[in-house]
Amino acid sequence: MPKEGQGRFWIAELAVLFGVWLLFVSKLERAESLIGLVAAGLAALMTAVVRGTDLARFCPPVRTLLQLWRVPLAVVSDTFTVFRALFATLLGKPLPGRISSVRFDPGGDDARSAARRALAVGALTTAPNSIVIEIDRQRGLLMVHELVPADVASTLRALELQ
Fold it and tell me: Which residues are listed as membrane-spanning (predicted)?
């Protein structure tokens, strides 16, 4: 049975997703708009289905959300880092890539812990220099592959994820 206000939330989500579609396609042609409306409707519907199953719980700490402005800066900075590494490789220098592990409290199965894990993976993987390989929940480690070694722990601390 739908909860009160779910219909309004679905319509708001549909509107936002459709707006994002229009930004991506940069056109207001009838066919594009119709396809976008269908795609946004399906995405909003699937989101409502998943939300109703309680399979995906996500309740991020507000402190962390307030620090996410750092991610686009890391993307720009890491892009320069990756290009420097590319040019160095073209000049015959070896690539100093590594796999590192960082202490990371994965928390439990609650929504806040799930959000922290998802945000850590998303933030570290969005920037092009690193990709999260695994979160080892038993040992409390986050394993990361880095093209050019960097201080992953300080990134996690800056985002209030550690």
Answer: 6-26, 33-51, 71-91
Relative to beta strand 98-103, strand 130-136 is unpaired
Residues 6+ apart with CB under 8 A from 120: 104, 132, 135, 142, 156, 159, 161
Asked if 102 and 120 touch (Cβ cutoff 8 Å), the reply is: no
Beta bridge partners of 146: 98, 130
Residue 2 has pLDDT above 60, yes or no: no
DSSP-derived letter for residue 54 is T
Give CA–CA dist 151/43, Å, rounded.
Answer: 37
pLDDT digits (tens, 9 = 90+) for 31-86: 888 999 999 999 988 888 887 777 767 788 888 889 899 999 999 999 999 999 99
Q: What is the mean pLDDT of the chain?
A: 89
Amino acid at 92: G
For the segment 3-16, the average pLDDT, to the nearest whole number, is 81
Residue 22 phi/psi, 5-degree rounding, is -65, -35
Cα–Cα dist 16/36, whole Å: 11
| Beta-bridge mates of residue 143 | 101, 134
Nearest to 102 by CA among 68, 70, 144: 144
Q: What is the residue whose two structure tokens read 């700490």?
A: 61
Count of C-beta atoms within a 10 Å radius of residue 113: 16
